[in-house]
Amino acid sequence: MLTAKDNIFYFIYLHRTGLTVAGLSAVLLVWPLVESNPYNLGLSNLIAIYAIVVLGLNLFIGYAGQISLGHAAFFAIGAYGSAIGTATLGLPAWPVMAAVGLAAALIALAVGLPALKLSGHYLAMATLGFNIVIYTLLVQWDSVTGGPSGFSGIPSLTIGRLVFNNEIHFHYLVWTFAVLALLLCLNLVRSGAGRGLAALAEDETAAAALGVDTRRAKVKVFVLSAVLASVAGSLFAHCYAFVSPDSFNIFVSVDFVIMVVVGGMGSIWGTLFGTALITLLPEWIEALESFKDIVHGLILVLILLFMPQGLVTGIVDAVRTRIATSRHA
């Protein structure tokens, strides 16, 4: 017969995901009350924005088993789309964000249908080429995008009379979107579609033999990840009121992939850790700022050599193995 203590542990185990999300939400709710430094809050907001992109990318890499080096392009589409729609055309921000997200989905569909016939490094090169095309467009079409000088004067987001024009207000907004994206991904990977994606990542041929429409699954998750990147780009534009092409070049796409790998491919919770670590690392070690891309590349190589399943996943697996070994002994 189960005791009250056993029932509590069973309840915690059964609802561990929901309780963890609730705990994270509680921490985020009080974080601005604990940390009043606007600069640190700004870094926290940047982590939230990047996490939205990387959560979608992890679905594509960790669950669909594909590789993309072009997600900064969809990030740019969201940012510049919202900037042009609101600052140049004078349209309301929220409908523009939704329209730009739809546009990103259609572009992802147009790119994904032919590109996802490829695999491995061929697919990586195709997505990299797409990123280069978007980056070149941002630089060269200066009459619309502002060119290399960037685009400024982007208005703040508002809800009624509430204007998101400081770091505290924006903290609650971007982390609300990040937690919603987290919940979306957690529920997706636990659904039938998510299990099909996991099978696809392990062995595409076997997944197809089990009835998974592999091509359609890859296209769907690619489109979803593009929409998440676009939403994050729109938030980025309204948060900083300025965007420039350098925020969306191929090195940013590589950084997104590194965040996925460090957090653990296929680890939704690890995504948050990987995003935070790669974002904060140059801040912790100021000397690395000038060599950021080299350091990030070195981290990627070391992780792939010694912990190919990702840093978080690797540490968790090592701890579980140690505990299991101790119990057996």
Automatic annotation (TrEMBL):
Sequence intervals crossing the membrane: 12-34, 46-65, 72-91, 97-116, 123-141, 170-189, 221-244, 256-282, 294-316
Domain of life: Bacteria
Record flagged with keyword Membrane: yes
Molecular function as annotated in GO: branched-chain amino acid transmembrane transporter activity
Keywords, comma-separated and alphabetical: Cell membrane, Membrane, Transmembrane, Transmembrane helix
Subcellular location: Cell membrane
Cross-referenced Pfam families: BPD_transp_2 (PF02653)
InterPro entries in the cross-refs: ABC_transp_permease, LivM-like
Keyword Thylakoid listed: no
Membrane topology term: Multi-pass membrane protein
GO cellular component: plasma membrane
UniProt-recorded name of the protein: Branched-chain amino acid ABC transporter permease
Source species: Desulfosarcina alkanivorans
Lineage, opening ranks: Bacteria, Pseudomonadati, Thermodesulfobacteriota, Desulfobacteria, Desulfobacterales
